[in-house]
Amino acid sequence: MKSTLLKFLTLLSFFFLFAPLQNAFALDKHTLALSVVKIHVTEKSFADSEPWNTSTVSGTATGFVISGNRIITNAHVVNNSTFIEVQLNGGSKRYKASRVATSHETDLALITLDDKSFFEKVKPLAFGKLPSLHQKVVVYGYPMGGDALSITEGVISRIEYQDYAHSEISYLAIQVDAAINYGNSGGPAMVDDKVVGVVMQFDDTDDNSGGYMIPVNLIKHFLNDVSDGKVDGIPYLPIETQNLESSALREGYYKLPAGQSGVVVTKVCANKQAEGILQKGDIITHIDGKKIENNSRVFGSDKTRFTFLHYVDMHQMGDVLKLEIVRQGKVKNINLPLNDNTAEVFEFDHDPRYFIYAGYVFVASEKSEGCVTNKEYKKSEEKNKIDSITLSNILPTSHNTGTHSLAPMEIIKVNEQRFKSFKEFYCLVSNEKNPVILLEDSEGMLLAIDRALANKTNNETLEKYQIHNAQSSEIDQWKKESSCKKR
Hints:
Blueprint: H1 4-12, E1 14-16, H2 29-35, E2 36-45, E3 55-66, E4 70-73, H3 75-78, E5 81-87, E6 94-103, E7 108-113, E8 136-141, E9 150-164, E10 169-176, E11 180-182, E12 188-191, E13 194-203, E14 210-215, H4 216-225, E15 239-243, H5 247-253, E16 263-268, E17 283-287, E18 290-291, E19 297-299, E20 305-307, H6 309-313, E21 320-327, E22 330-337, E23 353-357, E24 360-366, H7 374-379, E25 387-394, E26 409-411, E27 413-414, E28 417-418, H8 422-431, E29 436-440, E30 446-450, H9 451-464, H10 473-481
Antiparallel strand pairs: 1-11, 2-3, 2-5, 3-4, 4-7, 5-6, 6-7, 8-9, 8-12, 9-10, 10-14, 12-13, 13-14, 15-16, 16-17, 17-18, 17-21, 19-20, 21-22, 23-24, 24-25, 25-26, 27-28, 27-29, 29-30
């Protein structure tokens, strides 16, 4: 798990602060400086505790021009944006911009400008290849508090799977071993005047905090993905695996011969493409012809060593993954269609969904079932559930005394009845005829609401806290359609 500070700092944007670069650049400085732009963003801001209270925040970030009259930056920079402008280095004019595509998984976004003449003034930056360890990179960006482009240098200290703070998913990331300061995200990191990464985040969980950037191969994946005009995302392998570094497990239990290595499948996720193709106990020895070591790493031709999952990430949705497995001592070749997107559910670029009743603030979020086996799925009382409901806040009043400490609380039942969606939850509460509405969480904790008293004082509570919108817009539509079935 990441620290709260990591997630917070990512949303604010960052830039790497390295020792200033002294040598000259092969690419004309003025030309390159115009290709790296300052981005001004105004975005909506919400809090689960006060979902009715929409505020706006403004900030700056960095982007850079690429082919096709596009500018690339971070997804967290433009998330929930209402207004975007772009400014040239040293320029005073701001150009109105709009989003083209967003990959929240990999924290990348494309924007373009209404005024296409802008792109006549700048030269698109080209992409290079994945850099090597200890290689020097040049980083461009706009530190907070200034309009001038900052040009700095750093050294690559690590290239491996890391949590992306924006999406909370792990992908390949490049770490630069250097001090970091607040500033802008989305700036290019370059080697030999070619982009090898995009500045993303930093981690201060240890004494040697360093900066992270999205590597060029993930950037190219994103650009290939959106070339058809839509974002399909990154496929994932819907299984769980265990390394086979233990010789007792590898040779003693699974009877793998010497020289054979891989990872063992410990779980196949229900209702996913791999179900019926892979089985628990399968040992995956090769991925797309590349041998998987017992520590789950694959040795590349360029001496790289990445987890085998990285080679899944490099596929596009709909591709076929070629696996070699050992099943009950026999070698098999498996073709696995990659039709499953990342398991995590994103709540980006959406207004909050909420319902306030008697001072109780209920917020809905999309539910991810995670990886469960078919047996676990069939036994689950939560199967097919699409929304989770959280009691995020309690507005203190005389009629809810004694319950103020219960929030936050995830609700799973209304008067002993389970629900699958936000709409079902709302209908259960609003249509309840019993004197007491009883809400329950997964631990059996109960919240009792006096229905008559709640109905009587609900408007008074809203007025007291100056709340003009007691629910999100879809509830207004449900009411208009009378779509809650009476019980």
